[in-house]
Description:
Distance between the termini: 35 Å
CATH architecture of the largest domain: 2-Layer Sandwich
Number of helices: 13
Helix content: 25-40%
Bound molecules: thymidine-5'-triphosphate, magnesium ion
Order of helices and strands: EHEEHHEHEEHEHEHHHHHEHEEHEE
Structural class: alpha+beta
Strand content: 15-25%
CATH superfamily of the largest domain: DNA polymerase, Y-family, little finger domain
Radius of gyration: 23 Å
CATH topology of the largest domain: Dna Ligase, domain 1
Mean pLDDT: 93
Largest sheet: 5 strands, mixed
Strand order of the largest sheet: 5-6-1-7-8
Amino acid sequence: MRLIALVDMDYFFVACEELRHPEIRGKPAVVGSDQKPEGGRGVVMTASYAARKFGLRSGMPLSMAYRIKKDTAYIPQDFEYYEEMSAKVMAIVKTHADKFEQVSIDEAFIDISKKAKDYDDALKLMKQLKKEIREKLGLPCSIGVSVNKLMAKMASEGAKPDGVKVVREDEAKEFLSKKPVGDLYGVGRKTSQMLEQFGYRTIGDLAKANPVVLVERFKSYGAELHNAANGVDESEVQENWEVKSISRERTFERDTSERNEMVEAIGAMSKEVGEELKNGGFAFKVVTIKLRYPDFSETMRSRSLSHRSVDTEEIAQVAVQLLDKYAEREEKLRKIGVRVSNLAKYKGQKRMLEYA
Length: 356
Ligand code: TTP
Ligand code: MG
Ligand code: MG
């Protein structure tokens, strides 16, 4: 029997802040991507449960949150600190796993098919894991246990906050059936709107739908959606591989000393790097350019940002600054490269159920 668990920390960034600011514990608090809630451009990264009561949510512009509830602790993000706490959490989670797959800064799937004898045993072990994280780090989490990754994730949502929930294989369909389609793991807002237009309001509606019709309407996503709605997911917990950097290189058609051409190449490559970064849910800290000259000699120059960034526009900005600072004037280039490194995951890799 397969036993899979998903561990997800509760209101993670704010929970980390509560550790070092005990005075905000239990109060409305948000971590934002900007120092200035009033008039700033930032967004809410996460909100404490006390703040969620007033409607404050991840992704909401800080200015809007500020209008809704001014009397909230607005804390600027400190990604490095959350990452440090994340590493401590994950080190504990790993010791309870047969297989471990971290999917975002605050969340990991674990395969516990060998460690646990059955569902009751799994429940007991996951309560111990939860207790250990609470006792050693002072952080709350929620854990879902089921027969596959999809169901474990769905169970964890049902366990929030601060709980453990087991959904047995024979309970899976029932557990899903009444929930709105938008709650299905990986279904984004656009897909859920489309599903509703076709009359699929609940996950149960989707589960009962004729798969042939779904494929007609949603192409290959139709089959995936149908499986997901029925609680079916064959994917394995995959041990992590490290992504250390993301880079692109361009060889110029002719060796060039034109700054315009170089800047254009940097712009195009930075865009691609930025896309890949976003798709993987990574933040970056270091930007490097590589310059190769006609004699094949090479220079690499890097700049480290003061904080990890998710602002992909910064890639090209920093790369161009490096170019202007270090490229030998008048010297021709044969090839140019852009790289971002010192990456950290900040976002879950939702399986793509979005109908593109
Ligand atoms: P989540 O696990 O999605 O949310 P959460 O831990 O804050 O709250 P919950 O109790 O519902 O699990 O995300 C983990 C962290 O990732 C979150 O604390 C902040 C960050 N994050 C963003 O920066 N932007 C976002 O849009 C979201 C959803 C999360
Ligand atoms: Mg979380
Ligand atoms: Mg999460």
